[in-house]
Specification:
Layout lengths: L4 H9 E6 L2 E5 L2 E5 L3 H10 L10 E4 L19 H15 L2 E3 L9 H8 L7 E4 L13 E4 L2 H10 L1 E4 L4 E7 L8 H12 L8 E5 L1 H4 L3 H9 L8 E3 L4 H7 L8 H12 L11 E6 L6 E3 L7 E3 L15 H10 L14 E4 L7 H11 L9 E4 L4 H9 L2 H8 L2 E2 L20 E4 L14 E4 L2 H10 L10
Parallel strand pairs: 3-4, 3-6, 4-5, 6-7, 9-10, 9-12, 10-11, 15-16, 15-18, 16-17, 18-19
Antiparallel strand pairs: 1-2, 2-8, 13-14
Bound molecules: 3-isopropylmalic acid and iron/sulfur cluster.
Iron/sulfur cluster (SF4) binds next to loops.
Length: about 475
């Protein structure tokens, strides 16, 4: 019977069927971060359970850690240091490899793990974090779990779960120049809605997806969780194989050759049937900006805050979003004055993102009064950027240049923009107070963030003269 790529990975990892209403699935890799992972390690230790395969589990510091230069264990969030220390102690006691604050491999978990070759096509990978779906970009079945499931996975290298339904999103046509994977991700959630992926394994397919480089695929898959998907996946191809070759934890020698052979065969069969199918034309996508407090509340950059009745402008959520964001229907997004610009997060903080933003900032200055921050997604990205002189471009434009981490994507570290500050941000969530109490987040690509920082107002990156 023909199968999807998801079916193939699921079936090859199924240890038992119908085990208590679900399948028992072998878990190849477990990733932990200090916000949720330390909790799981502590609770496991308290129950006297050991980590079954410590060499398959990895922990990293990313969420709460300070990203200001010269950082230590101290964080602006008073309780942050406890999370950091608990994770450090828990990882040490359990014998896991930890990428600590000063480790050259440290970074946002979804950025550093592909970088290190910790995520491989055909493997199962879990992490107590909702953006674990990013890693499906390499052809892995990777999904976010809760802390209790993380404990189970650590103790048994398995998880019991119901087989999720499948959905294929086929994106054909070519993205226009200046339009990125982030714009595509925002356009998809804008078109189909935040519930459109509900519980499904979403396979992204089509010529536009195949044309994306691996970093852009990570950006696209990253936002699948914003449509409530179980996870996302893209069939691995030569781009993925080239990306993984020589990475620290990728196989080498004969094991590499065998792995590559199996990865080349890993794709949905031509006649595989999906539970749901959606199609989208990449040529329709323009640079996108969110106006509200849900990632589906987006418009093209030359659009306006929708009138009531369109794009959630009329129902209670829409009205609340308008009030929270301090906007009225009909206001054009372009030219809306901003207070701050943020480039970072597991969506858009890889070297390609930084290069494209720096190309726009080169020789230009951030507008007066704008707080502009760039946070590389990993220490490796930071070092690469510095080797290329990108840090100097960011700094001389007036951006802060930070240590790697989640930073102001999420208020976990305690650092924030001012209440009601309007922030153009390369992150993935624009929920109320996501970037700190009262902050107003507009999601966009790193290019749009850079162009807007220069203009001091939301600006189209294609029009930077
Ligand atoms: C803290 C963590 C559990 C959370 C997540 O699951 O995604 C965070 O990373 C986020 O982006 O909101
Ligand atoms: S960068 Fe933001 S979205 Fe990504 S894992 Fe960190 S907090 Fe979550």
């Amino acid at each position: 019977m023909s199968r999807t790529i998801f079916d193939k990975i699921w079936d090859s990892h199924r240890i038992a069927s119908n085990a208590g209403g679900g399948d028992l699935i072998l878990i190849d890799r477990i990733l932990l971060h200090e916000r949720t992972g330390g909790v799981a390690l502590k609770s496991l230790a308290e129950r006297g359970r050991r980590v079954l395969a410590p060499d398959q589990a990895f922990a990293v510091m990313d969420h709460i850690v300070d990203t200001r230069p010269g950082r230590t264990d101290r964080t602006l969030m008073p309780t942050g240091t406890d999370f950091i220390r608990a994770t450090r102690e828990g990882a040490r006691a359990a014998g896991l490899r930890l990428f600590d604050l000063d480790d050259p491999a440290q970074g946002i978990v979804h950025v550093m793990s592909p970088e290190l070759g910790l995520v491989l096509p055909g493997a199962t990978l879990v992490c107590p974090d909702s953006h674990t779906c990013s890693q499906g970009a390499l052809g892995a079945l990777a999904w976010g779990i809760g802390s209790t499931e993380a404990e189970h996975a650590l103790a048994t290298s398995t998880l019991r779960l119901r087989r999720p339904p499948t959905m294929r999103v086929t994106v054909d046509g070519a993205l226009a120049p200046g339009v990125t994977a982030k714009d595509l991700a925002l356009a998809l959630v804008g078109r189909f809605g935040v519930g459109s992926g509900k519980g499904h394994v979403v396979e992204y397919a089509g010529s536009a997806v195949r044309a994306l480089d691996v970093e852009s695929r990570l950006t696209l898959c990253n936002m699948a969780t914003e449509s409530a998907a179980f996870t996302a996946i893209i069939a691995p191809d030569e781009a993925v194989i080239d990306y993984l070759k020589g990475r620290r934890f990728a196989p080498s020698g004969e094991a590499w050759d065998r792995a590559v052979e199996s990865w080349r065969a890993l794709a949905s069969d031509d006649d595989a049937v999906f539970d749901r199918e959606l199609a989208f034309d990449a040529r329709e996508v323009a640079p996108m900006v969110s106006w509200g407090t849900s990632p589906q509340q987006v418009v093209p950059i030359d659009g306006a805050v929708p009138e009531p009745g369109v794009g959630q402008g009329s129902d209670e959520n829409g009205q609340r979003a308008l009030a929270y964001m301090g906007l009225t229907p009909g206001t054009p997004l372009a030219d809306l004055p901003i207070d701050a610009a943020f480039i970072g997060s597991c969506t858009n903080s890889r070297i390609g993102d930084l290069r494209r933003a720096a190309a726009l900032l080169d020789g230009r200055k951030v507008a007066a009064g704008i707080k502009a921050i760039c946070v590389p997604g990993s220490t490796q990205v930071k070092q690469q950027a510095e080797a290329e002189g990108l840090d100097k471009i960011f700094l001389s434009a007036g951006f802060e240049w930070r240590e790697s981490g989640c930073s102001m994507c999420f208020y976990a570290g305690g650092e924030s923009f001012a209440p009601q500050a309007r922030v153009i941000s390369s992150t993935n969530r624009n929920f109320e107070s996501r970037q700190g109490p009262g902050t107003r987040t507009h999601l966009a690509s790193p290019e749009t963030v850079a162009a807007s920082a220069i203009a001091g107002r939301i600006a189209d990156p294609r029009k930077v003269a």
